[in-house]
Amino acid sequence: MSEPPKGRVNLEKAAVLLLSPQAGMELLARVFHGFGVRQPHRCHDAQTAMRVCGETELDLIVCDGSLGNGEAYDFIAALRRSDLEPSRYTPVMVIQGHTPADQILKARDCGANFVVAKPITPRLLLERVLWVASEQRPFIELDSYVGPDRRFQNLGPPDGPGTGRRRADRAAAAPKPDIDPKDSLL
Amino acid sequence: MTVITRRPENRLAKVVWLPGGKTIAQALEDAQANLDEIRGESLQVLKAMLDEIQAVGRRSEADPKAEDLDTLYALSGRVLDIAGLFGLPELGQAALSLCELVDRLKSRKAWNWPAVQVHLHGLLVLADPDKIPPEGRQNVVDGLRQVGQRVAR
């Protein structure tokens, strides 16, 4: 069993929008309430979510990718290309189950900060929230893509003095134990 | 091609590390406690969905109808939503494997009853996780994934 996680998290003042089908909303809201989020904005469709984005300065948006016909991905792409500031820059996490073949490109290019694969657990979700809070990626606007810069790799912290992240450095490094990222909280 | 690069503040970072709040361990405990309040009814819903998956699956054995495949896909997705939150991650992974299989079969306009059947059996086994040790449960999931990959070829 893994060590109990250390550190604190304060989501009491966080304005969080949850976009999910009715069926999964209660579970998601209960998890985020447990994390300390007082009253998340609960939206079941993209239109309502977009209206909330226009009215509220949000700190985090969590979308369930299973919303019908890729609606969550369309919402994120539309938000990123909208003039709703600061909401268009708000970190967006997508919780994704199976993505049908005809939606894979849409999901890849929608402009989300992070995708969390189902089956989810509270631990996995909180870990990803903290990860999103820690990232400093620039926001890129192209004809074909608007959202956080996708040119990044999650390599974890450097190995220590004398080691680098260049390919040659990594190749020279001794093999490391294979640690499942799910077992570590930031 | 014009590329515009901006560096907006990470609003989440501004609040999440503020003094106060709760320990991460407490946050996780509270989240699980909130879920446990509806554990009984959620597991009943899960069981009803698993029963329906079995019924729809068996009904589809010889002559799968498009709406049955849609139902099978949707129900598997709902099992995937719930299972991990109530300590049944392997059941969720098996449901994901069934989602992938059904989607693949639909897109190819094909049918493979043995592959679906083995998934139905897998879901039955994993719905009662106390009956098999963790490594056995993972073996079941790995086996289902292999079946799915074989169908994909």
Describe the structure.
The complex is a heterodimer of chains A (186) and B (153). Chain A is of the alpha/beta class and 186 residues long. Chain A has a single domain, classed as Rossmann fold. Chain A is 32% helix and 16% strand. Chain A is built from six helices and eight strands. In chain A, α2 packs parallel to α3 (71-81). The two termini of chain A are 17 Å apart. The relative contact order of chain A is 0.13. The model of chain A is unreliable at 173-184 (pLDDT under 50). The mean pLDDT of chain B is 93. Chain B is globular and about 60 Å long. Chain B is mostly helical. Chain B has helices at residues 11-16, 24-36, 39-59, 66-83, 89-108, 113-126, 134-152; strands at 4-6, 22-23. Chain B is built from seven helices and two strands, in the order βαβαααααα. Chain B has one domain: Four Helix Bundle (Hemerythrin (Met), subunit A). The chains are: A alpha/beta (186), B mainly alpha (153). Chains A and B meet through β1, α1, α5 and β7 of A and β1, α1, β2, α2 and α4 of B.
Give the oligomeric state: heterodimer
The overall pLDDT average of chain B reads 93
Instruction: Find the CATH topology of chain B.
Output: Four Helix Bundle (Hemerythrin (Met), subunit A)
Largest interface, and how many residues on either side? Answer: A-B, 60 and 59 residues
Helix amount of chain B: over 70%
Shape of chain B: globular
Q: Could you name the CATH topology of chain A?
A: Rossmann fold
Average pLDDT taken over every residue of chain A: 84
Order of helical and strand elements of chain B: EHEHHHHHH
Largest sheet of chain A: 5 strands, parallel
As a whole number of angstroms, the C-alpha radius of gyration of chain B is 20 Å
Beta-strand share of residues of chain A = 15-25%
- Mind telling me the CATH superfamily name of chain A? Response regulator
Number of domains of chain B: 1
Question: In CATH, what is the class of chain B?
Answer: Mainly Alpha
- C-alpha termini separation of chain B: 39 Å
CATH architecture of chain A: 3-Layer(aba) Sandwich
